Amino acid sequence: MVEEREELKSLKPYVRPPLVNARVKLNQNESPFDVPNKLKREIIGLFKEMQFNRYPEGSSEELRKEIAAYCGTGCKPENVLGGNGIDEVLYCLMMAYIGKNDTVIYGVPTFPIYEICAKIMGAKVEEVELDAETFALPSDFADKCSGKIVVICTPNANTGNTFSEEEIRKVAGKAKMVIVDQAYAEFAGLQPIFGGNIVCLRTMSKAFCAAGLRLGYAIADERIVQGMDKVRLPWNLNSLSQAAGLVFMRNRAEFEKGVNKIIKERNRVYKKLKRMNGVEKVWASEANFLLFRVNDAKETYAKMLGQGVQVRDVSSYPLLANCLRVSVGSGNENDEFLAALEKALNG
Question: What CA–CA distance (Å, rounded) separates 94 from 172?
Fold first, then answer.
């Protein structure tokens, strides 16, 4: 019987949230808004014209041009590599640049896929706890990063706080490479940070309402992109994904409306949670979700699910004991969430 590699034997796979029949689904940081119908019609029109018997354009050239234009001054198509969500792009980056002699370091709590990808490559993993109250990086974090591969998620997964460009560049001055995960960047108004040994990862799953299409991309120095391209599987982005990505990039203003609505709702829900009896703490967020603490996360989660409202129980993550995370939904969804939480906490 063939056995898996030794370094994989103790590795736990990414835990996908269970699919449940919830009336209000606010557990995966998805956009509450679908792609506008007029853009769907445009994508369907392109889809109808495709020759299914032909392979897609292998380099995603037109899409990379549009992404480069979106990312602004200094970004060229040669600085962009596309993939099936941030996950595949991160996987390609680590496969190209990380080996058994490397150490991958990041602050926790954060997105657990960093640990998984690093261990698949055989690298060592070093987790550094963020501040227990603010989730800020420790003051000596840059010194800990000397010669290592660093991952910084900003806004940070699960906590929603950002790290400044100054902090990131300070770390880059010490590290071998800095990977900046900006999956939620549009909700914080962040510009891409890349160049030299800094690689930026972004996605169309959140602000562009396209979690189901799996579209992500890296922005980096051209030489780093060339290295990633060596390990990228051929035709990794199918024709439909490329066509949809082009439509999204060329109609960015349509999605900015949804982002602004989510930011407005995020601020409203935050204020409501601050005043709710039974919510022990809620953290300000620059992402499309909010993190809050209650007395008993598992019991509260179950009571809310019994009312048809699903959030994410993140209480097993470092520093997040009895914490729940809620995606910012539509106005009606947020009202239902607040009502269900009030009932779960206060009967």
Answer: 17
